[in-house]
Automatic annotation (TrEMBL):
Gene3D superfamilies: Vaccinia Virus protein VP39. S-adenosyl-L-methionine-dependent 2'-O-ribose methyltransferase that catalyzes the formation of 2'-O-methyluridine at position 1369 (Um1369) in the 16S mitochondrial large subunit ribosomal RNA (mtLSU rRNA), a universally conserved modification in the peptidyl transferase domain of the mtLSU rRNA. This activity may require prior 2'-O-methylguanosine modification at position 1370 (Gm1370) by MRM3. Essential for late-stage assembly of mtLSU required for efficient translation of mitochondrial DNA encoded proteins; methyltransferase activity is not required for this function. It comes from the Eukaryota. Coiled coil: none annotated. GO terms for cellular component: mitochondrial matrix. Residues 23-187 form the Ribosomal RNA methyltransferase FtsJ domain. The active site is at residue 145. Keywords: Methyltransferase, Mitochondrion, rRNA processing, S-adenosyl-L-methionine, Transferase, Transit peptide. The keyword Transit peptide applies. It comes from Pan troglodytes. The keyword Flavoprotein does not apply. This is rRNA methyltransferase 2, mitochondrial. It catalyses: uridine(1369) in 16S rRNA + S-adenosyl-L-methionine = 2'-O-methyluridine(1369) in 16S rRNA + S-adenosyl-L-homocysteine + H(+).
Length: 197
């Protein structure tokens, strides 16, 4: 497992996922199992406190599946990020109640029907985006995996409404024939005209 995590982590670091900034203190990793993104995040924010010259950050991983313990990370599992009770638990656990970065590697169980699987993944991303006002700091970053398809533009439009910059990333580690891509949205400002509750 550790070798697999290191391979995935190295791939993410090479791909410019460093743009989610080591200056960020609190990160939430949704769809965290098996823990590769959390492992990178722990290193980036010094969540394990291994660098005494850097401030110590906080990493929270959330997943329906069990995640093996990782020094420097806190995990909520099993937990469903689409459940409002999970959002409340996230707020209670995050220092200051807010994250600087939300990472999402969530994916529905594949049915084998490409369009259906795509629609279900976009729905997961949009659901997570709907709780962003409660969890993400202004100026924060949102990174989510999706599969390219007919609903991708819908997700991209929503991200563009809430973030200053939105771009698509395809990691080198992703197979060439794979439709897997990531949306990287930075400088969160919320939706114009949205009413705060």
């Amino acid at each position: 497992m550790a070798g697999y995590l290191k391979l995935v982590c190295a791939s993410f670091q090479r791909q410019g996922f460093h743009t989610v900034g080591s200056h960020c203190k609190n990160r939430t990793d949704c769809g965290a199992a098996p823990g590769a993104w959390s492992q990178v995040a722990v290193q980036k924010v010094n969540a394990a406190g291994t660098d005494p010259s850097s401030p110590v950050g906080f990493v929270l991983g959330v997943d329906l599946l069990h995640i093996f313990p990782l020094e420097g990370a806190t995990f909520l599992c099993p937990a469903d990020v689409t459940d409002p009770r999970t959002s409340q638990r996230i707020l209670e656990v995050l220092p200051g109640g807010r994250a600087d970065v939300i990472l999402s590697d969530m994916a529905p169980n594949a049915t084998g029907f490409r369009d259906l699987d795509h629609d279900r993944l976009i729905s997961l991303c949009l659901t997570l985006l709907s709780v962003t006002p409660d969890i993400l700091q202004p100026g924060g970053t949102f990174l989510c995996k999706t599969w390219a398809g007919s609903q991708s533009r819908r997700l991209q439009r929503r991200l563009t409404e809430e973030f200053q910059n939105v771009r698509i990333i395809k990691p080198e580690a992703s197979r060439k024939e794979s439709s897997e891509v990531y949306f990287l949205a930075t400088q969160y400002h919320g939706r114009k005209g949205a009413v705060k509750q």
